[in-house]
Design goal:
Layout lengths: L5 H11 L3 H10 L4 H18 L7 E8 L5 E9 L2 H4 L2 H16 L6 H5 L2 E2 L2 E2 H12 L4 E9 L4 E7 L5 E9 L2 H4 L2 H17 L11 H14 L5 H19 L5 E2 L2 E5 H11 L4 E10 L2
Antiparallel strand pairs: 1-2, 2-5, 3-4, 6-7, 7-10, 8-9
Helix pairs in contact: 1-2, 1-3, 2-3, 3-7, 5-7, 9-12, 10-11
Length: 288
Amino acid sequence: MAEISASMVMKLRKISGQGIMDCKEALDKADGDLDKAMEILRKKGLSTMVKRAQRETSEGLVVGKHNQGGKFAVLATLCCETDFVAKSKDFAAAANTLADYALVCRQQSGPQSILETIVDGKKFDDILTEIAGKTGEKTQIGDYERFELDGPGLISTYIHFNSKVGTMVQIDTNEEKIAESQPLRQIANDIAMHITATKPLALDKDGLDPEIIERERTIYAEQVKNKPPNIIDKIVAGKIHKFFAENCLLEQKFVKDDSKTVAQVLSEAAKQAGGEAEVKKFVRFEVG
């Protein structure tokens, strides 16, 4: 059996992030082979992850990234159990790696597709095993979405300073030069920040779940049931209209200028650039 030196143990500990005794035990079992010892620790980490399967992962980080040409972008969340771990350097590095893997992944959504994605011979699932071994917490991908342009337009992502909430919005234009203009790029970024702040439920009222609308209508009707019957319908209709204005992105008052709606400020920016633009879709992720 190979002699396990202190330097070998420390080297494995630096690579794996595991405790000294765990590293020494792994090296003993691997007869001093560093790669085999690392594999032993990874398997141990996987076992630990299984034990943690029922724990809640309500903390984490939101990450986003564009490809070099800006034709597609991704937004994802890496989740853990505590804010303490979410703020660690190892977890932040894993979250940034998640963004890299998400760019490589060709699926438009679904965490499982990223777990199976391979970069430099390693699956992201393996990286999750390693980070769980280092932090001692259950770690998983929470949300993932990929937007890809199929014509003129741009995709803007915004991650709040605490990395707990982020937004991705796709804006289609009638010409590529409009998408590349400064006014539209600025307003796209502003709309992404607006979404982060206001939490719209849908792009417009047609995008709202009918069950949500009916639920609100029922609540409003109950609130005014003692009013004269001839005005109840008008009051409920007015409340529904207000609900749309507060929860549908295009009808919301723009946070930087509440005298205009989001649809209006986008239209003005596009006209300033000499063209037309519309919000195609958006997604907003939040952890913690």
